[in-house]
Structures are given as structure tokens and as C-alpha cells.
Amino acid sequence: MIQSSLSPKILVIRLSSLGDVVLTGPVYKSLKAHWPDCRVTVLVKPQFAPALKGHPGVDEVVPFDGVFAAVKFIKNGGFTHLLDLHGNLRSFLIRTLARVPNTATYRKNALARRLFVAFKVSTPGLQRHTVDRYHEALAAWGVPRSASAMSSGDYGITGQASGARNALIMQSAFLGDSLLTLPLLRRLKEILPDAKLTVLTLEKTAGVFRGTPWVDEILIDDKRGVHGGPTGPWKIADELKSRGFDLVVIPHRSFRSALIAKLAAIPRRIGFDSSAGSFLLTDTVPFSWLMHDLERNLSLTLPLGAGAAPAAGESRYVAPPPSSEKLAAMLPAGRLAGVHPGSAWATKRWLPERFVELCRRLKADGFTPVLVGGPDDKALGASIAKDCEALDLVGKTDLEDLKSLMGRMSVFVTNDSGPMHLAAASGVPVVAIFGATTRELGFFPYGPGHRVIEADLACRPCGLHGAKTCPESHFLCMRLLTVDQVHAACRDVLKGVPA
């Protein structure tokens, strides 16, 4: 029988892996939102207890020391509620012997998982995320879900900066990944105000870091040249070793990045536990797809003793430079609406004819649609522009121009892409159109006031980045998204934007 309590004393059991423990974070948020004065104690394996240390929704973390010790602890603790998020025989014994008045249990669909692994028999239950199923257990207590995503404050890992004076940050991924590293650099500069911060990146993304007040030096990783091939990591490691770095922070989760840091003999190496080279690191932080990538990157400062929770204004980290004469000559007077129709992956591109109709509607609303993109999207931009009288700047702007351009935009409509993050970081309201990818991968536009348009389909996401063709051959993830939806979202985000 479920009993009401103004200030419940809740025990949560999760005796599994680090990832499973980290994913319990949103549950504590929901409990605290429903019962602000409740006390939450979590029973976990000893090696994973630090993952919850400092979580704002957890009052006590208790290392598991056997079934009978756990039962004794619970009986002596006066708990009113027990939430079993493990759901196996061991946790069944604990909750049965402890006899807490109110219990709720997570259903892990163990049989369904075995059928899927053995015979590829899929069931609807398997398509729900673990966090969703954790929250289903709370329904017995009438606790609603208060947060759908995690944040970098959901677990605490304490440490200290240890007097680092010469720090390296390694990021050799795509444009969007590089942009989402900038808040990490800002936080590192706050933690290590007297340290020199050097970024190792690719030539094509170096412009992201140039001119930012948190970067003292930029080094180029020439993956396709002198630093490429089997001996490349040793070559670049020798160059880094000579610079005497005492700390490296690695948002990039590749084995190559971790190997280079190790070969460079950098004494302290911080990265994610999901890195292919995590065993080469000295400090690791849990990686969760339920966080935005910006916040995931901020969590890398936890081993340095920093608070990783986002601060006010965290979503603004790019200051558009003054418009160049070249760009000023291209742009008309009046309000501009940025439109980015391209992507390296076909399944991340909304239909061109719908971009045409959207541009027509934006023009009718008093905006000049401005098409932007890289050189590979020139033909796409030209075909859209000729049918809707949009200003076609596709392939005509470099990264610095694009930064300046953001200072003139009233709204930015885009596929899931690097320019999407640049617009959001510049404070431009973004309407993002997601097809093959989903918000849950953590790369949606960060900050208040943005919109993501997407279809609720079981086949999404079909990959981390997308694909060249739809694996299901129907492309419904984009075909179901209408011009009416996107245009309405544009009008919605523009309500708070002055003319």
C-alpha cells in the first residue's frame, strides 16, 4: 500500500555499471521536484559511488557491502520509500527483507532483450530509453517526470587543478564539435587564470578558436599530411613533448587523441570514460548521451575541482566580429533570415523544395532570406535561390564572414550542422530541422529560445551523424516535417526579437 508522506526518506538501489548509475540522475531531479524536502539515499557499488558525489538531488551515497549489510542499513535507516532501479534477484531479496512501506521497481525487460539479441525480435519496450523506464517506476508513487535531459551537474567528481601552468586541449573533430569546445576553454581559463591554454585542432576548424580570449596558442594537427599515417601520432607527440605541457583535456573520444597525449608524456590526461583510449588517461569522466555536448565538455573540468553546472549566459560564447567591407557590400538593408539547407549527410537535409517555400514565406514576412553553406553545397544553394529570390551566399563566406553574418541575423533556419551551433552561440534564435539525428544525441542548439522540429519515429536516430541514404528507404524523418511547422516555429522564436 502506498502511503503519503510530506518528507519521504527514500532509498534508491542501483547496483550496476557506471553508465547505468549516471543515468539515474534525472530520477533524483524528479523526486526532489515532487517532494522538495525528501531525503534521497542511493545504494551503489563502491567503485561507482564518486559518480553521484555532489549530485544536487542526492543527500547520501552508500557503498554496497553485501545483501545482509544492506538490509541491516535499510532497517536501521527508517526509510519510508524504496526505489529498486536494479530489478534483479539480489535487489529483490534486499527489498523483500527490508520491508520498506512503499516500494517501486524498475522493469528492465530482461526477456525482451534476450529475444532481441538471440533472434532479433524487437518489442516496443526496447525502444524506450533507460531513463524513460526508470521514470515508469515512479508512477506508482505519483511522481511525474520533471526533466528529460541530464546536465553536467548531475554527478560530481572532485579533484584539483594541481597548479597546472601549461595546458593543452585536443579537439580534431567537426566544426560543430569545435564550437562546442569554446565554453570548456572559457571555464578552463577561469579555473587556471595564470595558465597558458593551447588548442590542437585541424586547419579547417582553426578559425573557430582564433581571436577568442581564452586561447593563447593554436597548433595544427595535420592528419592528412605530416601527422598522418601509422607514424603520425609519434611525430606530433614528439612536437608536443618538447613544449612541456603539464595538463591535457581531451573532448575528442578517439584512440588516436589519447595515444598522442600519452606519447607526449603529459602527466595529467583528462577525457571521457567512453574514449577508445580511456585506459591511457589519468582521469576519466562519465559520458552520457542525455547531456548536451556543451555540458558534456564542461564536465571534463570536474577532475580539476570545478563546478560543471552551466552558468548564466553559458549559451553565448561567440562574439560576432564587425562586418567586413566585402560582407557589408553583399548584404541588403533590413531584417535577415539565415537559411542553411546543406549537410555532409543526405539524411540530415530537409527537402529543397520546402526550403524554397519557406524562403518565400519569410520574404512575405518582411525578411530577406540569406542562404549560407560550404562550397560543396553551391549547386543546392543556387537551385533554391533561383526559385525564391533568396540571397545566395553559399560557398561565398569563410568562417570569419559567417561569424560576422550572425550579427545581422534575426533568425537562423538550419539542418543539424555546425552553422547551427555557431548561430546559437552567437545568440541568434535557431529553428533546427532534425531528420536522421535526434536531440538525445546531445547536439541540438544550446540555450533558451531555440526550436527543434522533428518527427517521432522508432527508426530515429539511424546513426550518430546520419547516412547517405535512408536505411528504411522511406525518408519519413524529413518528409513528415512540413513548411507550416517550420514557418510557425520561426514566427514563434521571433516574437521576442526586436525589429
Strand content: 15-25%
The fold-level CATH name of the largest domain is Rossmann fold
Q: What distance separates the N and C termini?
A: 58 Å
- The number of distinct helices, counting runs of at least 4 residues, comes to 19
Give a brief outline of the structure.
With 499 residues, the protein is of the alpha/beta class. It has three domains: 9-141, 3-Layer(aba) Sandwich (Rossmann fold); 166-304, Rossmann fold; 325-496, Glycogen Phosphorylase B (Rossmann fold).
Characterization of the model:
It is built from 19 helices and 17 strands. Helix 3 packs parallel to helix 4 (89-98) and helix 14 (352-364) packs across helix 19. With 499 residues, the chain is α/β, with parallel strands linked by helices. The protein is globular and about 75 Å long. The strands form three sheets. The protein has a six-stranded parallel sheet, with helices on both faces. It has three domains: 9-141, Rossmann fold (3-Layer(aba) Sandwich), CATH 3.40.50; 166-304, Glycogen Phosphorylase B (Rossmann fold, 3-Layer(aba) Sandwich), CATH 3.40.50.2000; 325-496, 3-Layer(aba) Sandwich (Rossmann fold), CATH 3.40.50. The N and C termini lie far apart (58 Å).
